[in-house]
Amino acid sequence: MHKNICIIGGGISGLTALYYLRKKGLKATLFEVSSQIGGVIQTKNIDNFIIEKGPNTMLLSDQRTLDMIKDLELSIENASPYSNKRYIVKNRKCLSLPISIFNFITTSLFSFPTKFKILIEVFKRNKKSSNEESISQFFIRRFGKEFLDYAINPFIAGTYAGDPDILSIKYAFPKLYELESKYGSVIGGLVKEKKDINKIKRQTISFNGGINTFTQKLAKRYKESIFTKSQVKDISKHKDGYTITLKQNNELKTLNYDKVICTIPAYSLKKITVNGRSFKDFTTLNKINYPSIISISLGYNSESIPHNLSGFGVLVPKCENMNILGILFSSSLFKNRAPKGKSLLTIFMGGSRHPEHCKLSKEERYSLVYKDLEKLLGIKSKPIFNYETIWEKSIPQYHLGYGHYNKILGIIELKLPGFYFAGNFVNGISIQDTILNSMNLINEKF
Question: What is the pTM of this model?
Fold first, then answer.
């Protein structure tokens, strides 16, 4: 029985690992270097505008995640029924992404040749390249260039803030890769694939007060086991487990543990030594790319916005040559996200598409945003409220060749028995991915 476990990192992965370890009756201590728990999941209430600095929503599609939410006695806030309506920019106009057969047939988002390619994809048996494919290569081969440009490219900007030309289909979207490999068709595979017993109807959710209600509830439940402002400096392996050296209140402390779970971002690993020395494999993982991204929250008087904001938001394809990546209709998506008579928009900039935006002044960024908002939503007035968050390192990019990093993770765990990784650079970037990754780790190794 492993009696005492150290968790490094207080984001959703670390908190989930703590949750499942405690469910098993195991002792665990979590150390977080910053002054707050939750990682990138951060919510602020400013003048009754609810601002999400990190993820704005959580996609719920697994019973095990729902069970955890229920156990924490959290009240789920479902997105508006109109949230399935999503807009894609084409020729500087916002067009609805088709959500029904009729919409698909009548939409001007895709040309007839593209619609035909989508319809016959199930019969297509293209021979895959022997080389690892990018997301762009995969979708061009299966559905054509226009589908890539006006469906996949904006979707990748909205999820990874990434570039489909260099993201790997095998690692960024393993399910799609497996469907084609197993059934010869993506659409055919979706139809034939047996339903996972844990799958439930997909829902876009948040919680009363914002996403960080989730992480704060975990932090409150296990507060006696969580230590902030605690920087792990060294991990030393010995026959009985590990000695952790950490810095708290400018003092160095050493503590002994049976096993260690590391959930910090890949770029932070280089700050930790192993057995008192720099660890080459940690330095290698520092090469994983994390692009910068800017989240800008703007509040308006509702009557100053000509668009009805009925839907999830707007995604902008790269080929449209605009400044922003997308717009989230935050106050339409969930209730009580803005004061009465006000509307809240969340705009995303930067990413792999526009890394230079992070270096602009705030005034320069906002000028670009206002121009795009006028073109897309007809907004001519200035906002009555604004708040900006810059993530210099945002989302890990599962680029071509990412399998090399997965091998490094395996090598490290062989070199350091009882040392394990979790986090969004391991098996998926979404909140639910990280929850299930931590859950599977605890079930398999503890």
Answer: 0.94
